[in-house]
Write a structure and sequence with these properties.
mainly alpha, 99 residues, 0% strand
């Protein structure tokens, strides 16, 4: 009888594993099914199925000129006056989703 599955042993940081598995659980996808899907995408695309790149440089006060900082502050003020702002909680949640 042919083997129907093979084992994959990997090491993952515990907090990364927990966060990923919490999301997969909400989606109703097991870690095994996700790995199988990912492997199939690697085969189909003949490479990594998503972009791997360094993020653009994050602007900080130390890396901005006075002019850039002033423009950023003016943009924020204009957006706030137009009601285009979000609450602290929503902004924090958006940041956390990006991590």
């Amino acid at each position: 009888m042919a083997t129907r599955s093979a084992n994959v042993n990997v090491r993952v940081e515990p907090n990364v594993k927990k966060q990923a598995e919490d999301i997969l659980d909400k989606l109703g996808v097991s870690a095994s099914a996700f790995i199988n899907m990912t492997y199939r995408q690697v085969i189909m695309k003949r490479g990594i199925p998503f972009s791997i790149e360094l993020p653009s440089e994050i602007k900080t006060l130390d890396t901005m000129s006075d002019k850039e900082f002033g423009e950023m502050m003016q943009t924020g003020l204009t957006q706030a006056k137009k009601g285009e702002s979000v609450s602290y909680e929503e902004a924090f949640n958006q940041l956390m989703k990006g991590l």
